[in-house]
Amino acid sequence: MRKHLFLGFAALFFSLTLVGQEYELQSSTETYKDLLKLHRGLRVLYVAAHPDDENTRLIAWLENEKNIETVYLSLTRGQGGQNLIGDEKGDALGVIRTYELLEARKIDGGEQMFTRAVDFGYSKSAEESFSKWGKEEVLADVVYAIRKFRPHIIITRFPPNRNAGHGHHEASALLAAEAFDLASEKSAFPDQFDRVEPWTPQAMYFNSSSWWRKELEDKTDLELKDENIIRVNIGTLDPITGMGMNEIASLARSKHRCQAFGTSRDRGERFEYLELLKGEWRDDLFDSYEGVWSRSEGHKSSIQSIIDQYNFTDPMSNYKLFINEVEPKLAQRSMWADGKDINYVNQLSAKIKRNMLGVRVEAYAGQDPIVVESEFDLNIEVYNGGSEALQIRFNQPEIDTSFEIGSGKQISFIRKLNAPKEPSTPYWLRLPHDELYEIEDPNWQGEPRLRDKMIEYTVKFDVPFKGETELHRKWTDRSVGEILQPIQYVPLVSITNQSNTLLIKNDGEVMQHIEVLAFGSVKDLRVSPSGVEVDATARTGIMLEKGQKTTVSTKWQSGSEPNEKHNIRSSAYLGDLAFHQSVQAIEYDHIPNILIAKDCEMTLVKLDLKMQAAKILYIEGSGDEVDEALENIGYEIDRTPLSEVADKLNDYKAIVVGIRAYNTNDQLIAYQDKLMNYVENGGNMIVQYNTSRGLKLDEFGPYPFQLGRERVTEEDAEAILLQPKHQVFSKPNKIESSDFDGWVQERGLYFASEWGDEYTPLISWKDSGEEKISDGGLIVSQYGKGSFFYSGISFFRQLPAGVPGAYRLLVNTIEYQPK
Ligand SMILES: [Zn+2]
What is the pLDDT of residue 723? Predict the structure, then answer.
């Protein structure tokens, strides 16, 4: 079927604040707050390991109450975590979490940095994390972040020891402490000095809390001081914005939607504890720290004089004060600052001047994704909202023009631009990676994202200053209004496998379906897989108009050994031109639309699998691909909501419950009795993992059992069958030790921690170096004529990755028949 739609593209609409907001004019209160920040001239680096680790309360307080520039350095982009709002895992999840952090920072005012460390999933110690990442590499990145941002103070979220919990957390604190000492050393990572200079932070604190140490709440300030701890009430109100600091923090935290961190707006007194780890004790919180202006009180007092005389309704008068009082001082560079602080001050003061003048410059393309290397229209809008005429000059190859723009006037014009050669994709995903991202250009290091094309201009009123504006897409929808999204460069043809893994059962055959999407019209396109010598033929002569999609199917027959894996790349050809990229659109309404371009590859697995086709009810949880995987091997999967099928559950051979369903799916509460009746009457119910926190039902098995936080994080941890003769290990597939080979990321998580005699634990395993053996990864109970399984085994990772043993084990679980 042909569809004249960019299906999956530009399907969602966003509010104005999501992208490209830098060029918008701010209110005079926002500019006033920028002046306070320029006056303060102090920077804090907050260090932790994952998107969502950061204490948004402290960041909001630092930024908005103390006017301190704050960066959150997250070691990872969180790609090893769970996703509660969709199917994305791994790199795609890391993209979602990166942009959730950026949205959170837009609210609390902070900025964002990362290291190259990949979140490889749960880690039990810092040593394990270091052994995977390479300690020197990540340490270099933390040192680089310090040298680049030049914080006067560093704050860690976690203690530098095992109390930190997650190994990545502990690692973040250990690295921050080492990097604190190394950042100023000329001998440490000297290769960085072509981009940054040595930097000496003044102090380091650990952001302790009564969560770690309940007794902190009862201590007096003096007692805390004996322990080098200072207490701060971050629950203050900013009268300028009418917002409490913890209120801002709640809004920022709620942006971590894929982690289900939505929280109500918190107001009133709230205490944070900062424990001094390095540097000198001071009784005040940051007030006595000197920042950018340590060498020039005069600069600081000139900014103070503008703050004192600030006029909220006459921005031009503020501009004139700025030009007369501050500008001449800034011009004498050597007097007040060393090195890179000049850039920081210049950038902030250019933003302040632009807003005082009322200059808005926007650069945008239209709605459609733009084919790489093609020419497109660049629209420029210049608006002078101020009270005086100004000079604007654009001076770059594509736009070379200058003009005067009168007070209150808008001038628009169009130029031609050429799209780059490569499709849009997050920069850290351009090269293959294991546990550390490879980055093409060291200058990108630490950046949360690369900005799209920047259009530069100069504004002149009395004095000239530079501005820049980021290219984006803008269009109008009649039901929504103006829509803004990032620019999207796409290949002429995108080819995408319908699934990442193809399974060939026994001696069967399987169809590979490739979706072909044209972003421009193509004639006589040929699509062909390659990579393994079996009977797979190319499709030729495909004609597509712009926006059209078609599906090309290729038959594969087993030609490999049982349980063998093959990597298959596919390409489309237009004459000599080859297209091998697949464009994945990440579309949620709380982050911008982001494209990920990657090679069209999939894994072909020959699977030695016995099973009987049957109808299975799949109850959705927070989102996984287990249902598709079961469908691919031949089960009939019904995803009808429970409410519609609650009275005919006996039709199903088994009911499989998706991950975190008892955390997210309200229907399970309503129909729990019916589910248990189904089991009692001879049904088979398999519940995949749920988290112990936030369960909608405390009891969801036929007999009580408890969920814990136990997990086995080593994907190759030895599996010991506790009941080797149990039917689950023999019918219809004989489970062998080889079935536990080739697993990915982990064995499982959120195992059952306690259960009654009615349950039988089936597998035991543990991570190396752990004392405790975990038996609760797969437990089963007979109830009436049926059976109930709770499984913490991460089938949701193994099945999409094409792990044969995981298929065989899950099939046995589904086909289990109690005697
Ligand atoms: Zn974390």
Answer: 93
